[in-house]
Amino acid sequence: MNILDKIVNDKRIEVDLRKQLIPVKQLEASVLFERQTVSLSDKLRHSNTGIIAEHKRRSPSKQVINHNLNVFDVAKGYQNAGVCGMSVLTDGKYFGGSLDDLLTARASCNLPLLRKEFIIDSYQIIEAKAYGADVILLIAAILTKAEIKVFSELAKQLKLDVLLEVHNEEELHKSLMPSLDMLGVNNRNLKTFDVSLDTSKQLSKMIPNDFVKVSESGISNVEAIKTLQPYGYKGFLIGENFMKTNNPGDSATQFIKDLQS
Ligand SMILES: O=C(O)c1ccccc1NCC(=O)[C@H](O)[C@H](O)COP(=O)(O)O
């Protein structure tokens, strides 16, 4: 059983419980459910830097990254740094995140917010909207083609952008459909946790230009971005590199300055 299988098994139990605690009707009645969302894909299309900065306390590959920060300050710092969007991990067991983190980030900044979650049920998409997200992540490795279609179409109805994540050619081919906005290539091998930008390079030519290309994981310096831009990547999801510092906002500011120089 790989790490995604374990996460998904736990997630099914968690989502079933959540559904009993907070019915869909209650989520739909929340103030944020009516909020006008902001498109991350549009921002990335028109950006020269394309940074999506992540809030990530811990992870299966690195264990603890940083438990000493508060998400309000991190979100404000990322916004001041000029990032295009923020990714907020909401999984508790493996990443130390929560839906409260998403809510707090929403209260702190105007950035497009990605709910970084292992989505296996439509309920989580409605939750994402109710807690202030602008974008959802769908992971091809844990979903069937039919699920990707149903979930992405629901997201579009709710005016949420969709980032579809793939790790290989097979996942990419089963996933391409018009209800997606962004195609994310994850550079992290989830069996070994090794990261290689070669994954983004190899898959880039198979992604049609209608989708905004995003490279995810293992980006730790501006050279990585300069290497990936000629392959058509417009978005770069960066977590650990910023979150391991005492001030992720300052770290993102310096990173963007270096990228523009
Ligand atoms: O980060 C992990 O260890 C991980 C393990 C299993 C599933 C997902 C995982 N990470 C989620 C992400 O996609 C990353 O948080 C994101 O791409 C940022 O990566 P990084 O810049 O390397 O922190």
TrEMBL record:
One of its GO terms (molecular function) is indole-3-glycerol-phosphate synthase activity. Pathway: Amino-acid biosynthesis; L-tryptophan biosynthesis; L-tryptophan from chorismate: step 4/5. It catalyses: 1-(2-carboxyphenylamino)-1-deoxy-D-ribulose 5-phosphate + H(+) = (1S,2R)-1-C-(indol-3-yl)glycerol 3-phosphate + CO2 + H2O. Its EC number is 4.1.1.48. Pfam families: IGPS. Keywords: Amino-acid biosynthesis, Aromatic amino acid biosynthesis, Decarboxylase, Lyase, Tryptophan biosynthesis. It comes from the Bacteria. Residues 4-249 form the Indole-3-glycerol phosphate synthase domain. It is an enzyme of class 4 (lyase). Belongs to the TrpC family. This is Indole-3-glycerol phosphate synthase.
